[in-house]
Amino acid sequence: MTLPDEFVKFGVCYGVFEKVKSIGEEGKMTPVVDEEKCIGCGSCADICPAVFLLNEENEKAEVIDEDGCDIAGCCEAAAENCPVEAITLE
Ligand code: SF4
After folding, report:
1. How far apart are CA 13 and CA 32, in angstroms?
2. Whether the CB of 33 sits within 6 Å of ligand 1
3. For the chain, which domains are there?
4. Which of 18, 22, 33, 54 qualifies as a cystine partner to 45, CB 3.0-4.6 A?
5. Distance from the CA of 21 to the center of ligand 1, in angstroms?
6. pLDDT per residue as tens digits for the range 51-90
7. What is the pTM (predicted TM-score) of this model?
């Protein structure tokens, strides 16, 4: 069996780590909530509680983990289900 150069350079684990790291950086999404648009329905926090929280005081959604989208995998669903399109993924 022949492995690609990137995998044998410093061992298989290093190659896998670098590959996963590069994929993560390419697909990185940062969620942003437009507070002017947000109507405080709480849908995003229900769908993706690892990233969004409904602030009970001002009834606006907050992003509690800007780096959480790639791990949680639910930011796109939260954005798609926001009734006023207040969530963007940058
Ligand atoms: S789904 Fe949209 S409107 Fe509802 S709380 Fe989240 S950002 Fe606000």
Report:
1. 34
2. yes
3. 29-89 (3.30.70.20)
4. 54
5. 31
6. 999 999 999 999 999 999 988 899 999 999 999 999 999 9
7. 0.73
